[in-house]
Design goal:
Layout lengths: L2 H9 L2 E4 L4 E5 L2 E5 L7 E4 L2 H21 L8 E4 L15
Antiparallel strand pairs: 1-5, 2-3, 3-4
Length: about 90
């Protein structure tokens, strides 16, 4: 089984949600929050760190809600080897 084949196997039963995050500067760096999910916010020294920290929080909230049989109430997208999506992320260059 080649590497590409392993990726195909790993992508089965994988779902994603598409989120909108709000990023704001604060006294300690940046705050990222997801207005649609209560408690989904995190700080970081950089925009990128705040985003990735917020995504980690959202994953924890999703796991907690899944254990309780609850959903995030957001549309899930089935990810398959044929799935293609375009996303925009901020990348500091200066």
């Amino acid at each position: 089984m080649g590497i590409g084949r392993q990726e195909d196997v790993q992508m089965r039963d994988t779902k994603a949600i598409l989120l909108s995050l709000v990023i704001e500067a604060n006294d300690d760096g940046y705050l990222a929050r997801c207005p649609g999910i209560q408690g989904a916010f995190a700080e970081g020294d950089t925009i990128e760190e705040a985003i990735f920290n917020c995504v980690d929080v959202i994953k924890m909230i999703a796991a907690y809600r899944a254990e309780r049989g609850e959903s995030l109430g957001l549309h899930e997208v089935e990810l398959t080897p044929e799935t293609r999506m375009t996303i925009s992320i901020p990348v500091a260059v200066g």
